[in-house]
Design goal:
Helices cover about 35% and strands about 20% of the residues. It has 21 helices and 22 strands. The strands form 5 sheets. It has an 8-stranded mixed β-sheet with strand order 5-4-3-6-2-1-7-8. Bound molecules: adenosine-5'-diphosphate and magnesium ion. The site of magnesium ion (MG) has 5 residues, from helix 2.
Length: about 650
């Protein structure tokens, strides 16, 4: 029979310490958090041998009164909370009272501290959880904790440490995150004798970012400042142009606490869908502030995770905050960088090469309204504002924020442009006749509401002239001195997607005369029925039809009836695969799928007025000039570029 006994105090202590102290970076995190909680305005962190040999954290905070020092090292001893109720509203980073005890259990710790009321400082020493000495010493108000020989008494733990440089990187990451969370505190980080960064502590997040991160990252940031009820989100996100190869530059905070949170990450990335290229990740430094009782921070011994009372609310906040930041400014800057300058600075080609077709990449045009929006935004360095056309004035910013707010007043009409009416070939028409028809073909609400008047100075744009269509895929149009090519499917898809977002939850689907039954796998069927509400809000009403089937009763406006089954199959497969995806993300790709199904396709035969109306809408800038997957919707060539290609101009 197995003997059951209570572990001795020392062993129990080591086990508990293991939860908090996994590696040098966990020690640094706890110590820096204590310094922040102590009201410090300057914190210095120094490590040697990746922090395994020594870590020292010096602050100018409150200090600890001599009589309480020993108590602070007892497990569950804390000055930050006192009773059960306090757990529901934790305003400090620490509250578990475990850090000092855990650290001292597995290392040698020296603590030198002095409060403003004390004349002397006190130097207190522990090793392996045993008190060694306490003596008077000297220092200014504040605390220095030095931790040496981490895991010297727990060889098993020691084995799991990586090489010093890797451990040092983890520490750097921790200090960086804290420095970004607290721009009001001056951080100094010294690694193996070399100063890594010093933040000014001037309260400006941008200064902290400049000091602690690369210039490259800092120069492509868009400010986020968004409030929704009692919640707010502030900080910076990277411009879509500055997408990165990984998520390493995503820094999330809740009430100033570093968190790793899937909801916030998903919301961030969903907000970039359609604005940046697939496979690129946005960067951010984002702090969400909310009433303390709306977030439980006591879910993880290392306090790196939190639980929100209302996850959907947080998703929604972050999504809208980021979306309004990236659309308010200039997703289109990306295209400018890609192209305009390249074309302008292209080297003259050698004689032979000149015979080949376009030497310079055609540039992607910026819809006038997006450019107008840029004028109101903070200037971005590195862009090419000279290339922005400021000739029209329909800021989609205003529309975007309205569209994103799915709580607002109903928009009756989700019908999209161009109407799927005539599909037959059109005889050639005069340009003015085409313009008139295009005007008629243009959709009404919500996208085509009266433009917001902008600066008087905004000149009328040159009229758009329809030239034709290539490969039944690209609309060719001319405006002023530009030749414009538009991917008709991508353009239509984007417009429909924006309408679906605007009408989400408010626009009923079109009833099918004969409901369509669709056969699905068990997992797919479960997933579809579980998310029936979400689909219904998107205009797709689906019921259980027994067995392996579901019955589709309505489809969103513009989705051809014959596409209903394919659409449901596609959505079901994705819902089943992404069963745990946050609701906002699901909604987003459900709307993408619908937009894709409903949009006109490359190869379709579409009448000229329809295509012209489509082109006009894109150029009016009511939607971002990228399809929901992030591909550009239009490119342009100037007359000058063409003349150069044909040797008419030097
Ligand atoms: P917690 O932070 O969860 O309260 P810790 O074990 O980290 O627990 O710290 C115990 C106590 O020691 C804290 O509550 C605080 O009163 C005190 N303390 C620790 N570090 C500092 C510091 N740098 N400055 C002032 N007081 C500190
Ligand atoms: Mg603490």
């Amino acid at each position: 029979m197995a003997v059951i006994h209570v572990l001795d105090k020392h062993t129990a202590e080591l086990i508990a310490a293991g939860e908090v102290v996994e590696r040098p970076s966990s020690v640094v995190k706890e110590l820096v958090e204590n310094s922040i909680d102590a009201g410090s305005t300057a914190i210095a962190v120094e490590i040697t041998h990746g922090g395994v040999e020594s870590i020292s954290v010096t602050d100018n905070g409150s200090g600890i009164e001599a009589e309480y020092i020993a108590t602070a090292f007892i497990r569950h001893a804390t000055s930050k909370i006192a009773r059960e109720e306090d757990l529901t509203a934790i305003g400090t980073l620490g509250f578990r009272g475990e850090a000092l005890a855990s650290i001292a259990a597995v290392a040698r710790v020296d603590l030198l501290t002095r409060t403003a009321d004390d004349e002397y400082a006190c130097l207190y020493r522990q090793a392996g959880g045993q008190e060694l000495s306490a003596a008077a010493a000297a220092r200014s108000v504040g605390t220095t904790i030095t931790v040496r020989d981490l895991f010297y008494n727990v060889p098993a733990r020691m084995k799991f440490l990586k090489k010093d440089s890797s451990e040092g990187n983890y520490v750097a990451d921790v200090v960086l995150k804290q420095a970004l969370a607290h721009p009001e505190i001056a951080f100094r980080f010294v690694r193996e004798g070399k100063e890594q960064f010093v933040t000014p502590g001037d309260g400006e997040l941008k200064s902290a970012i400049y000091a602690a991160l690369t210039r490259d990252f800092a120069k492509n940031l868009l400010p986020v400042d968004y409030r929704q009820g009692v919640l707010s989100a502030e900080g910076f996100v990277t411009a879509p142009i500055a997408g990165r190869g990984s998520r390493s530059m995503q820094f999330f905070y809740v009430n100033g606490r570093t968190v790793e949170d899937r909801t916030m990450m998903a919301a961030l990335e969903t907000a970039y869908k359609g604005l940046s290229m697939q496979g690129r990740f946005p960067g951010c430094v984002l702090n969400v502030k909310m009433p303390l009782e709306k977030v439980d921070v006591n879910v993880h011994p290392a306090k790196t995770e939190v639980r929100f009372a209302n996850t959907a609310e947080v998703f929604d906040l972050v999504y809208k905050a980021v979306k309004s930041a990236v659309t308010r400014t200039d997703a289109p800057q990306k295209s400018l960088d890609l192209s305009g300058t390249a074309a302008a600075t292209a080297e003259p080609l050698p004689q032979t090469a000149q015979l080949q077709m376009p030497a310079a990449a055609p540039s992607i045009i910026v819809p006038a309204a997006a450019a107008a929006a840029v004028r109101t935004a903070a200037p971005l360095s590195g862009g090419a504002p000279g290339l922005l056309r400021q000739d029209s004035a329909v800021p989609y910013e205003t529309r975007r924020s309205r569209m994103l707010d799915i709580e607002k007043t109903p928009q009756e009409d989700a019908a999209a442009a161009p109407p799927a009416a005539e599909k037959s070939a059109q005889p050639l028409k005069s340009q003015s006749a085409l313009q008139q028809e295009a005007a008629a073909a243009a959709p009404t609400a919500p996208l085509a509401e009266a433009p917001q008047p902008l600066a008087e100075a905004a000149a009328q744009p040159a009229p758009l002239v329809y030239v034709g269509e290539a490969f039944r895929t690209y609309i060719i149009a001319e405006r002023g001195d530009e030749l414009i090519l538009i991917d008709k499917h991508a353009a239509h898809e984007r417009i429909l997607y924006e309408k679906l977002v605007a009408g989400y939850g408010k626009v009923a689907g079109q009833m099918l005369l004969a409901p369509v039954s669709v056969t699905l796998s068990a997992a797919e069927k479960n997933a579809v029925l579980a998310d029936a509400r979400l689909l219904c809000d998107a205009g797709l009403e689906i019921d259980d039809f027994g067995g392996a089937s579901v019955l589709v009763r309505t489809v969103p406006a513009n989705v051809p009836t014959e596409s209903a089954a394919r659409l449901v199959e596609e959505i079901a497969a994705r819902l089943a695969a992404g069963i745990r995806d946050p609701r906002g993300a699901k909604t987003d790709w459900v709307l993408h799928s619908i937009a894709c199904r409903a949009a006109i396709k490359g190869g379709d035969h579409d009448p000229a007025p329809t295509l012209l109306a489509l082109a006009q809408q894109i150029l009016d800038g009511v939607v971002p000039p990228f399809c929901p997957h992030g591909r550009p919707v239009l490119i342009h060539l100037t007359q000058k570029e063409l003349e150069k290609q044909f040797g008419r101009r030097e």
